[in-house]
Amino acid sequence: MVLYPRSGASQSKLSGFTLVEMMIVLTIAGILGAMAVSAYHTSIYKNHILAETDQLQTDLAYASMEAVRTGLSVTICASSDGTTCNGSTSWTSGWIVFDDPTATQQTVTGTVIRRYQSALVDGDTLEADNSIGAVTFNRGGYVSSIATTIPQVTFTDHAPTPSSGTTLCLAVSFLGQMSIESAGQGNCL
């Protein structure tokens, strides 16, 4: 007796992916890739903001130390040209640190510019509250340009698309103490 195999039974099983399976895998890979890129951009913005805020804090501390060391007032102010104060509460265009023996918060002929920070990059913004365009440290290292009725000045640094993760604030008290806060902490909005 001769047995004939059923239709298709003699064929070996084919292995591989169906089009539907391949589309599902590509969709999942695309979603994961988009999430990774978003997290990467947020990480880049956080690092930019942290570096800018750290630079401002370093320059403020430098101004305070120089005022104590020299016994003269030293001012740090918003500046777009690197030689004069622009009087703005926006520090996005940069800032300068200079000797200010008369505490006028303005440079004059012969003023020594101790440090210059150029404009922020990538659309970041840095704003001071309480209408502060300059901070002057006296020979004791205290902030003499902030009235005692204003407990502190807060500098808020935002990425182009501000969020709680891409916003930092640098608070400076009239005693010259500084602290960095994340959005939602203290006076940082």
Low-confidence residue ranges? none
**What does the overall shape look like?**
rod-shaped
CATH homology superfamily name: minor pseudopilin epsh domain
Structural class: alpha+beta
What is the average of the pLDDT values?
A: 85
Any idea how many domains? 1
Query: What is the spatial order of strands in the main beta sheet?
Result: 3-2-1-5
Biggest sheet statistics? 4 strands, antiparallel
Number of helices: 1
Based on CA atoms alone, the radius of gyration comes out at 29 Å
The CATH topology assignment is minor pseudopilin epsh fold
Helix content: 25-40%
State the order of secondary-structure elements, H for helix, E for strand: HEEEEEEEE
Distance separating the two termini = 89 Å
Strand content: 15-25%
For the record, the CATH architecture stands as 3-Layer(bab) Sandwich
State the CATH class.
Alpha Beta
Structural description of this entry:
With 189 residues, the protein is α+β, with helices and mostly antiparallel strands. It has a single domain, classed as minor pseudopilin epsh domain (minor pseudopilin epsh fold), CATH 3.55.40.10. The protein has 1 helix and 8 strands. The protein has one helix at 19-70; strands spanning 74-78, 95-99, 113-117, 125-128, 134-137, 152-158, 167-173, 178-182. The strands form 2 sheets. A 4-stranded antiparallel β-sheet has the order 3-2-1-5, with helices on one face. It has a 4-stranded antiparallel β-sheet with strand order 4-6-7-8, covered by helices on one side. The protein starts with 18 loop residues before the first helix and ends in a 7-residue tail after the last strand. The model has no long low-confidence stretch (mean pLDDT 85).
